[in-house]
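Journal club prep — side note

Before the paper discussion, L.F. wants everyone to see what a predicted structure for a comparable chain looks like in token form. Sequence:
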Amino acid sequence: MVHLSENEGIEGRVFVVTGGAGHVGSLLCLELARRGAAQVRSFDIQYSRDRLAQLQEHGVKCIIGDVRRLTDVEKALKRADCVFHVASFGMSGKEMLQSRRVDEVNLDGTCNILDTCIKCSVGRLIYTSTYNVVFGGQEIRNGTEDLPYFPVEKHVDPYGRSKSLAEQFVIRSNSRPLTGKKGKKLYTCAIRPAAIYGPGEERHLPRILHMAKMGLLLFRIGGSKVLTDWVYVDNLVHAHLLASMALLDDIPGRSGLPPAAGQAYFISDGSPVNTFEFLRPIVEGVGYKLPQREISVQTAMILAWIVYGFYSLFYPCLQSWWIPEPFILPAEVYKTSVTHYCSTWKARQEIGYVSIVDKKEGIDRTVTYWKERHGRELDGPQLWVWILVLGGMILLALCVFVPAPFLGPLECVRSLELLLLRTQNRMRFTLYMAILAHIVEASYAWLLARKVDPLNAKDWFLQTLALGGFSLKYLFKRAKLKNSQKKQ
């Protein structure tokens, strides 16, 4: 293997990163800019204000466009030397249920990228794939790239199926002749990352921590001996850059096909771990608890298919903000409850991959990040408190204002409240006093939050208006923490 400098094939070249506004894509853009690329273009469908400012500050050109539109792709890839195709859709949550968009982004989008690379004479394409192309619920121990693709018809989610097909498109497009460059070819390879973690990751940990906050992490699946791979984001970015260098066809002393041409590589930290034990320091680091109760894979799968069926009823509305993330889905059961980890030997041998951040350091950085982020975000009680308080207020209001003939089955609730409060006037008085108490508590929460958590003052007001003292308890805790930090 020819040894290259860390900037080989980067300095003076033009790069395009699809999905450049995402976690991996944005860090890849920043690293390319740091290593001296002539131009780095981030190509994504939308940008958050913070991410846009960060990229532009480092000289990255931010292009808004859609990989599903060929004209947008051609505009982004014009005169580029290398493309990192990171953009995808459907990895987790309710995105996994939107099969049509999953196929459009992951399949149609990848075909657009491939065709445009040929048309615009782009010499290198690195595709961000996934372990799911070979995994579909069967046990894998120290798997290698010789594993066959998991049968597409047996995938339980459209994401795994579409990524498998897209990767095959990319690999089979290796060595296609470029338009307008006689003798030059497109060289392609695929990076297959394990589950990604690290500061700023938005796919897995935010959803898990939100569920922990709401008290919805109810059980473990699969037992303590189940092992899976994870990859710290810096290691994944490093692997992408190494792969791009291993696709160069103009390195002195190297002849024949570039070493990575037409190849796929598993990328991980190289130390498989039980998913729940991996999550423990992160979840407990922000003050939540992991469940101790354990259920079987079969039971979890039944529950997951029930959730899948229920959410399918809302298919046209799944992108709406008011549809919450599903509790659990079939593919997620497999990912957490079935051992599957793979060897990085091929990546080490052919592209020189090694983990630049070990798992312990990666977890420590992630815990620190989430502790700081948790301290900046609104905190509050679990879901059952919301149901109890808001449900009680709504029931009391119905019993006060709705005439008896229209209450239907809620008449028994009115009877119970009359038994406790004796008269309709007392019921009305109790409702008015509860509303007044919530207004007073919310006003106090707003005043206090302006001092201890001004960025979330409005949210503290609204949450306390709904929950009263149950919300104030968390605000007092934050005020106490801030006072203790000032004394230190």
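L.F.'s comment for the group: Residues 383-487 form one domain. Keep this in mind when we get to the figures.
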